[in-house]
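#struct-pred
JK: can someone run the complex with zinc ion? inputs below
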Amino acid sequence: MIIYGSRMYFKKNLVRSFGECEHCGRYGKRVSYRARKFGHIYWIPLIPLGSTAQVLRECKSCKMGAHIPTHQLEPMVDTISDQFKSWIVAISEGKTELEIEPGQPPANIGLLITGILDDLYCLNEIEDITSITNVLDANNLVYERHLVMGRWFEIQGDLDQARLAFQAATEARPNEGPALFQLGLVEVLRRDVPAAEAAFTRYLQFHPEDNSPHMELLGLYEIEKDHAKLVGCLDVLFERIPELLDQKKLKKLYKKSLKKSGLQGKFAAQV
Ligand SMILES: [Zn+2]
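RT: done, structure tokens with the ligand placed:
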């Protein structure tokens, strides 16, 4: 039998990280690297197929990841890296918030860094977190430091440490929604139902209009096969977003949960 096919060869800039896969939704190991696709026979790369590309966050479970051609990569890396540098300069100038879009409320710098940390790391723009925490420490930005550290631990696959860091952020500023939301997300990844509910309940006190905590909890209840909680959660979601009643998958889940839990759902007659 002749073994032939195609795959990425000559991997460079390999970065291992952890995160939620955009394709299969699993939180797990991922790799990012630069490489070129070759057609192979008996695993010997013989025919180059296309130019070198950056692969971002290739999931170990489903093998899917983003492929960015090199000519698109450089402008992308420059934008991310310039943005990051300008935020570090702003911190050293004593700023904690920045206006990103005119007319929108200013965004917290710690939260902004948290948002691009994964890209910076996977693109090999930063190797560790100390250069960032040093700047935050020098400017006494305690809340921001905990936020950034929480995200860093999440990327490193250490969910227990991530949880502690986000908890510390919520203690530093108990009335800030974003830290509570991040904490809730980590608790979902840890599959700790009571802790996730507690974090999201606190978050919803500040952002009652946000539906995303309910969606996150729905996913968690589904994994845990908690039918009674699924009914309660879907009742809330159907009430908030009536269009969800048109989604076959959710209707099926609701029906099944009603049957298994024996509960009377608010929308039982509509599915
Ligand atoms: Zn995947």
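RT: quick notes.
Residues 4-70 form one domain.
The beta strands are 4-20, 27-41, 44-48, 53-59, 66-69, 97-98, 107-108.
JK: thanks, will look after standup
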